[in-house]
Structures are given as C-alpha cells and as structure tokens.
Amino acid sequence: MSDEKFDLIVIGGGPGGYVAAIRAAQLDMKVACVDKRASWGGTCLNVGCIPSKALLHSSEKFIETRDHLAEHGVKTGKVSLDLAAMMARKDQVVADLTQGIAFLFKKNKVTPFHGAARITGPGTVEVVGDNDDIQKLQAGKILIATGSEVAPLPGVAIDEKQIVSSTGALTLGKVPKRLVVVGGGYIGLEMGSVWRRLGSDVTVVEFLDTIVPAMDAEVAKQLHHSLEKQGFEFRLGTKVAGAETSKSGVTLSLEPAQGGETENFECDVVLVSIGRLPYTDGLGLDEIGVNRDNRGVISVDGRFETNVPGIFAIGDVIPGPMLAHKAEDEGVVAVEMMAGQSGHINYDAIPAVVYTAPEASSVGRTEEQLKADGVDYNVGKFPFMANSRARANGDTEGFVKILADATTDAVLGVHIIGPDAGMLIAELALAMEFGASAEDIARTCHAHPTLNEAVKEAALATDGRALHI
Ligand code: FAD
User: Fold this and answer.
1) Residue partners of 396: CB distance under 8 A and separation at least 6
2) Which candidate in 200, 266, 289, 292 could, as Cys together with 195 as Cys, close a disulfide (CB 3.0–4.6 Å)?
C-alpha cells in the first residue's frame, strides 16, 4: 500500500486520458494515469479506431487486388484470403501503438498505474490491481476519462461469438456467411464493410428510415446507394425484438419500427452496434455525488469541472460526439485550463469521418440543421466525376458539398462523400477554425491534379462559378 501524492490523477488511458496526462506533464504537473486494461490507448487503440482501420485497409487491399487491379493492367494470379494473417497484422499494429504510449509516458515522466480506479473522496483514488492489491493515490485534481461501452440491445444478449459487439467483430475466426448488423451508424457500417469485402452477405437492420442519421441527408443517401452497390442489404424502419442462438446460427425477430407483424431472420453472426454509453461503473461517482444524466453522461462546466470541485471529466463520458480526436482535444484543453492557461476547443469545427468506401466526412452543420435553425445559406456542390485526379485514379463516386452563409459567405458546414473524404475534410476544419468564407477557399491555390481541387470547385459553386462542370 502506498500513499503517493500527485498534482493530477487521470483515470483512463484512452485518447482523452493519455493525451491529457502527457500535456499535464509538459505543463510541469506531477501526473499519474490509471487504466484497468493491460495496454494503454483505451477503446480507440485496443478495440476501436485502430484495429477497425487496420482491417478496413487490409480488406480494401483484398478487394482491390481481386477485383480492380486488372483494369489498371496489373495481372495477378488467383487471389485468396488468409484471415489469420490479416488478424495477426491488425494485432501487431495495435500492440506497437499501445507500447508507444508506454514509451511516451516514460519520456514525459507520467507515472503509470494498472488497475481499477475508484474515487474514494476529494483528491483520493484507490487502485485495485489484478491481484487485488490496493494502492492509494492522492492528488489536488482528478480527471475522469473512462470512456464508453457498447449500448445493450434488450432481448439480444451479446456472447461475443454468435452475437457480437464491435469488439467481437474485430476478432471473428472465420468469415460469417450471413452477418446481420443491428444499427446503421458508422461503427456498424465500417465493420459491415470489412466482412462484406471478405465475403459475408451483410444485412443492416436500422430502426430509423436512414443510415448515419447525424450526417447530411444527401451524403447519407449516397452512402446507402454506394453500399447497396457493394452488396449490402438494408432493412430500414425495422427493429430487432429478440434473438435466439442455436448450433446452426441465430434467429432474429424483426418487426416494423412502428409495430406490426414479427418476422424471423436467420443468420450466422449478429453485430450489435446501436451506439455507446458513457462508462463509469465502479468509479464511486454516486458516493461522492458527481452529477450525471439518465444516460450516465457526466455534466461539466466550461472548464470541464464536474459539480464536485477538483473532479474533472472529458471524452466519451461527457456530452458531445464520441470521437477520439474530440476526447484528445478536451484532454489538452482541460489540463491547460487547470494550469491557468485559456485553452481552446471549437465544437462547431470537429470533423467526423465514416471510413467506408467511399469515405464520408463532415464538419459543421448539415443542410437539415441550417434549415431547422432558419439560416439562409448557399450550397456549392462538385462531383468527383468531374475531378481529373479522381478520374485518373478511377475513383469517381461522390461529391463535395459546401454550405456557406448567404449574407456573410462564412463556411457553415462541409459534407464530403468520395475518395479520401477523411483526409479532405481537414482543410475544411481548418478553414472553419479560421472563420473562412467560401470565397477564401475558392481563392486559395490548390495543387493540380489533386482531389482537393474538388473542394475548391465546390467553394466556387456556392457562387455559381465552378469551372469544370
Ligand atoms: P476510451 O478510449 O474508452 O478509454 C477509456 C479507458 O478508461 C479504457 O481504457 C478503460 O479501460 C479505462 N477505465 C474505465 N474505467 C476505469 C476505472 N474505473 N479505472 C481504470 N481505468 C478505467 N473514434 C474516432 O474518432 N475515429 C474512429 O475511427 C473511431 N472508430 C471507432 C471504432 C470502433 C469499433 C469503436 C468502438 C469506437 C471508435 N471510435 C472512433 C470512438 C473512439 O474509440 C472513442 O471516442 C474514444 O476512444 C474515446 O476516448 P476516451 O479517452 O474518452 O475513452
């Protein structure tokens, strides 16, 4: 048992927590970071962003080699899948990156603790290790960065074999013949894409009448169409009422979302991905009186402090999009403010990306939100079909859509579906951060031939001046 004293204890070593710990150490705080996982990086590195992107990349290479290289004049022999090798590569990527964080902690003199943390009082944390050994830590400030967990679906018990969460979907031992994805959000569509490419028949069951409902409706519609072309089946406006597993597979009971006749749907594996909920189990928040809403989301003020002085929270446990880069930025800002700096985060300019093929990305408000807010806006759209680089690459699906204020020309939102949409959105997040107008983007010289020229053309199109269409 020890009674180590720190300036700051960060609970959770995900992208929010570990980045906050490093920044706090840079600001000369004595910092501890606690995680109950054996490896650093939280959901994102261990069972989220990174392993999913590794599998998306590998499965895209498989499809590219099998179906598309010939059109470039590249001949291959019979292409076959080595799933074990693909999984092993993904695991190695994760292992390398999580070990990288241990190195960064050492370099920045962050003291690491492995074990489950519980806040026992103002400034005191108990860490219970694997062997039930207890360490008592003290600090002036505590930062909760314990992330989120999979939202459960009533009547559908996850066993991580036949009925899996995203975590199980990252480690399936063989390609399921029939996969049902419950939930048409980005995680379900990404994991569905991996297994579709590797050979599964994929059906997405979604309660609402659209997939990716938070995205601009035109982008959502195009993504739906593109995925359908790849063989996805969609059952929109449908809810899953229950599931029964047997040796031969899973029988799902499906019902129309508004109620009606139940139908049975047979498959081999079900992926439940209807969203995520903040994770604060065992932290002792009720005992110390930290306010949360009925979904468990912790309330914080503009300095990320909870209603209990000295206890702060960031990332997936507080309001806002559950995204790694949002958690990271909040971590940095929270500790900078603790250190007396002003800190800065602009919630209007947080990009979001769906890493399907084509990718979909967005920053700022959607057209539907602008309408609801009663804002007058101009729309500039430019299709990748008219972009020379997309044509040269043979990757022409999708468009760039810029929404600019009708009076001031300020960029209010940008929505992209197409090749490298996830990279292209960075320019627009920067533009919005600097308060750019569509004219600013249109007058910025963009290299030729690049996909980025579609961004410039969309900016010109807000004023009816696109040049290549
Ligand atoms: P987390 O990363 O969840 O980390 C919290 C950590 O706290 C965990 O390691 C947990 O073990 C630890 N912890 C919890 N309770 C305790 C306790 N009592 N004591 C000690 N430790 C504790 N986001 C993106 O931006 N881009 C993507 O491409 C993307 N892809 C995703 C794909 C999948 C399949 C999933 C599931 C998520 C994805 N996300 C993505 C979301 C992203 O992973 C999360 O938004 C991000 O990890 C949140 O960071 P965090 O630091 O708040 O929490």
Assistant:
1) 383, 384, 385, 387, 390, 418
2) 200
Ligand 1 cavity residues, CB under 6 Å: 11-17, 34-37, 42-44, 48-49, 52, 116-117, 145-148, 166, 187, 279, 282-283, 315-316, 322-325, 327, 355
Give me the phi and psi of 311, to 5 degrees please: -115, 120
pLDDT of residue 2: 54
Place of tokens 């961004």: 455
Structure tokens at 426: 């960075």
Strand partners, 31: 8
Which is the closest atom of ligand 1 to the Cα of 170? 34
Q: Which amino acid is at 245?
A: T
Cβ 174 vs Cβ 186: under 8 Å: no
**390-420: per-residue pLDDT in tens?**
999 999 999 999 999 999 999 999 999 999 9
pLDDT at 59 over 70: yes
The 3-class secondary structure across 150-162, one letter per residue, is ECCECCECCCCCC
Separation of 216 CA from ligand 1 center, angstroms? Answer: 25
Nearest to 105 by CA among 44, 11, 20, 42: 20
